[in-house]
Amino acid sequence: MSDDSLTVLTQSHNPVSFTTEGMKKRDGSYYKAGAGLHISEKDIRILKKLGQGASSIVHKGFYIRENKFVAVKKINVFERETRHQMLNDLKALCDAPNNVPGLVSFYGAYHVPESGQISIVLEYVDGGSLADVQAKVGKIPENVLSKMTAKMLRALAYLHREKHMVHRDIKPANILMTIGGEPKITDFGISAFIDSTLAQCNTFLGTVTYMSPERINNHQYSFPADIWSLGLALVEMSTGKYPYDASLGPLQLMILVLQEDVPLPPAGEFSEEFRDFVRLCLHKDPHRRPMADQLLEHAFIKKYANDPVSLKSFMQCAFNPHDKLDEIALVFAYNYYALLNAGTQRMKDLAPLYSKQSTLRYDGDAATGRDAIIAKLQGVAQMHAGFKVAHEVVDVQCQPLGFDGSALVNVTGQLVSPAAGNKPQPFTEVFVLSQIQAGEYYVANQCFRLIK
């Protein structure tokens, strides 16, 4: 470990170095640098905490260079087990190409010397986990579960068939949902990689509540262990409660799983197709559980393939208009100043933000209407270009105005220049964004002021 880097060994004793600029291989080159893994702390603006575990904290962040929201998982790596889990996470994420349907995408990882942590930058999934969704709706309807399960099975089939990987911790909390209705499997930290589809695992890791009988018995296990976990999760999400009595403690819970009949969704409340699907997933003999790609052909999946239910419509239960407004404000602010910093040739790209009624007050000067405002901003951009001055965003705050979707956006920042001896000059700028239609805004009022 040096001041700006941290090197850890994989199980095969290959060193992976985490620097302030990203992940490096043994030869000093960055992992997939062209694909975005050359990433550093200055590329990310941390917005808020999403959750916390025993050895990690997950924040929502904004990836400035890529103009997208991300999840930043900050991990303390001084414990051996934590390092092992993180490297499993990274192996799964690095090996899988981004934009695999059903899997969370990976953008990179970097070292933060001040805290000694490793930060892993992942795709931000805006609907929360299926555990969050279930907490809001109580029970997830069977037709909705069918469509979700089809997508989850395709992701599991990819992990099992293409990556030869057992996830080992499939549960509602590790299946994230986008507001658009796309499930994403996450948290690969305790996953196991096996050399072939015939190989077996021997370790006892994962969430006991979703652990398969063969794993509880400490027998060898493979991909069917994930199928068991999926089946148990489906029972919980359909009925609104975990099917075993977990209050008695982990030892008694394991006895229940081994000795009791498998829990099925109640007859009469659920279709026989669904009950049969769950019965196959929860077969106590792992050799009799179908593989993920075989389950895609099951009648439960086909029954609702053409059902008009929309996962996007269902996921509106997780929609938070205030979170969405914060996102709109942040994206607006960074894009606005990026265009302003680009110089006079980009001012035409700012024009659509204004109307004939828009007003601008710029440090005492006033302009009304799109043409007058763009002319004023042209002058500002030209003056700043001459002195190589740029706007740097420090903070963005947003609050709704009334019930028409309008918002007040308050930006604090500083004017910076590379010239020696020039101190950054702080500024504040307020925008009133008026909504034209859902997700579409224009700047109604704008006021810029230097802080002296």
List key phrases describing it.
single chain, 452 residues, Phosphorylase Kinase, domain 1, Transferase(Phosphotransferase), domain 1, Nuclear Transport Factor 2, Chain: A, 3 domains, 6-stranded mixed sheet
Describe the SSE topology.
Layout: E1 5-9, E2 15-19, E3 22-24, E4 44-52, E5 56-63, E6 68-76, H1 80-95, E7 106-112, E8 117-123, H2 130-137, H3 142-162, E9 165-166, E10 175-177, E11 183-185, E12 192-193, H4 213-216, H5 224-239, H6 250-259, H7 272-281, H8 292-295, H9 299-303, H10 311-314, H11 321-341, E13 354-362, E14 365-368, H12 370-387, E15 390-401, E16 406-416, E17 425-437, E18 440-450
Parallel strand pairs: 13-18
Antiparallel strand pairs: 1-2, 2-3, 4-5, 5-6, 6-8, 7-8, 9-12, 10-11, 13-14, 15-16, 16-17, 17-18
Helix pairs in contact: 3-5, 5-7
A few lines on this structure:
This protein has helices spanning 80-95, 130-137, 142-162, 213-216, 224-239, 250-259, 272-281, 292-295, 299-303, 311-314, 321-341, 370-387, and strands spanning 5-9, 15-19, 22-24, 44-52, 56-63, 68-76, 106-112, 117-123, 165-166, 175-177, 183-185, 192-193, 354-362, 365-368, 390-401, 406-416, 425-437, 440-450.
Report on this structure.
- It catalyses: L-seryl-[protein] + ATP = O-phospho-L-seryl-[protein] + ADP + H(+); L-tyrosyl-[protein] + ATP = O-phospho-L-tyrosyl-[protein] + ADP + H(+); L-threonyl-[protein] + ATP = O-phospho-L-threonyl-[protein] + ADP + H(+).
- The chain has three domains: 5-123, Phosphorylase Kinase, domain 1 (2-Layer Sandwich); 130-318, Transferase(Phosphotransferase) domain 1 (Transferase(Phosphotransferase), domain 1); 321-450, Nuclear Transport Factor 2, Chain: A (Roll).
- Helix content is 30%, strand content 27%.
- It is built from twelve helices and 18 strands.
- It has helices at 80-95, 130-137, 142-162, 213-216, 224-239, 250-259, 272-281, 292-295, 299-303, 311-314, 321-341, 370-387; strands spanning 5-9, 15-19, 22-24, 44-52, 56-63, 68-76, 106-112, 117-123, 165-166, 175-177, 183-185, 192-193, 354-362, 365-368, 390-401, 406-416, 425-437, 440-450.
- It has a six-stranded mixed beta sheet, with helices on one face.
- Strand 17 and strand 18 (440-450) form a beta hairpin.
